[in-house]
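Format notes (please read before filing issues)

Several people have asked whether sequences and structure tokens are stored in separate files. They are not. Every record keeps both together, in the order shown below: the sequence lines, then the token lines. Line labels are part of the format and must not be stripped during preprocessing.
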Amino acid sequence: MRQVAASPNGPLALGLLVVIYIANGIALSLAGDPVPTFDVDPTTQALTPQPTFTAFTVAVVLPITGILTFSLWTLLLMGLSRLFGGRGSFTSLFCTLVFASAPPAIAALPLQAVPADRVILLLATMPLFLALAVWSIVLMVIAVREARGISTGAAVGTVVIAMVAALVLAFVAAFVLLALLFRAF
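Then the structure lines:
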């Protein structure tokens, strides 16, 4: 991480991020959607399941939304680490975060291809998912520490505050969306 932070390679990190999101999309599409969407076939009037993950979604939508989300996450970590005296460039932090997220994301690929209707298999893989989540957080702390030049404690504080802020924001967004949805009916 120290080498990546010292000489970040933006195009390589961006390419790796795109590959990770495409691979995740392929794995999820192999698993199938637990709640498929249906269209009415005009000739038979029968409901036909429609694939949720199209090639366009996997090749274009997931990478673009992934890059935007990853960039926002990087900005949040950058701002919070500044409170702890962090310094360094956006590119340095972005690249170290991408390389920190790669091993857990790649290790989780086979687990994401487990069909959602295989409940026993999903439950059996939960400890591995939790281990990968912990590994991911540890690597993220190291990435923030190295890219922003702060102590490990400050990096832990940055990551924890960012995760809490992201959860609060997700709950607020969900509440607002639900309120708008129920208001529409």
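For reference, the curators noted about this record: The beta strands are 37-40, 47-50. Residues 40 and 46 are 6 Å apart (CA to CA).
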